[in-house]
């Protein structure tokens, strides 16, 4: 199997990290709009929040982000210049339904995405749309507790219906939720969940996850009814869990970490709760309330493809080990002594991508799509305006080689790769601007100050050649 000419090379972003324009043209407040940068951020994204107001003394990165709202034409022209075949973006729910519970959508919000999709169409770029990427209407967080409540399914489906109908001529690929497994690690950021002291957090998270899983299945059903061409994919934060040693205790714990992540995909792809999860719920006293037809909904409407983000592998040591910990996409794991780390302490493991691709394909046997992979790093603009991000080129090049080997030598079925990120955006976990991921540099700092001018990095020209040669140039 070689890389097909139709392979979807591209880049990705999310509305809350990229768009800005948080109060423009009728947009309502969303969950991430009240998450400041700085020391409070980490607790808030994990659900420790009781005050939903905006503090004028703090900086909120989503409010302006990198202002895609006013730069979309310029940015899409740059993506087209790189040769993107696909662009993964997310919808800001509150641009369409400002509070989440209105009867009719906000026309200005619909117009904005239509304009974006028209630009994509003009350049022959296939949009891949994440319906909810770390995004819930703040009004629904405050009134019904967001995904804690089953009512959220109806509001979400109302959004889906508008999107599937209105953008029928523009979009064929949809991802109902970004990194659905992140609900366990960053529940406010991922799903708008908050906790007060005496609540059973695990119970709440799995109940909310059940609502998302049912919503995802019903969205799949609806998408196909509205347009049989629609293809729906689940999306999870991937990265295989390696045992820290061959001690069976480490191997066991690593397997449990993998199961915790695969749980979501097992339901979305295989259409039922896996036995290991049901048993674990029983042992822990977690009671997920389900309605009578939930099981048949999950069984009848599985996803068409599996998409995931991959930044790093994880390394798991059993509780009684004294292994050193390291960072990694919101999961702190044991430090893998064989791997270098990024400036933010995330392990760098290209072979881990090949391992993950093989494991995911073995498990589900469905087409796959890598929708996030990239390096967060500090970039410097030289006096002549050049940005020599060879570290990013190295990271991406090694990962793309591993991906190509998985396709050509291992036979995994992968139909696209959208790097994170198409353009510099605000970091989700830290809220920093200086943790840059893009091929396009944006002149803005951690306080939202700057000209917001766009500059091409060296990786821009490199990726352009990779796409043009359909990977030969790596
Ligand atoms: C993924 C998210 O978890 O990782 C993105 O889907 C995020 O939204 C990306 O930006 C990188 O993480 P961070 O925290 O460095 O921005």
UniProtKB/TrEMBL annotation:
The active site is at 372 (nucleophile). Keywords: Glycosidase, Hydrolase. PROSITE patterns: GLYCOSYL_HYDROL_F1_1, GLYCOSYL_HYDROL_F1_2. Coiled coil: none annotated. The keyword Hydrolase applies. NCBIfam families: PRK09593.1 (NF007158), PRK09852.1 (NF007356). Belongs to the glycosyl hydrolase 1 family. This is 6-phospho-beta-glucosidase. It comes from Granulicatella seriolae.
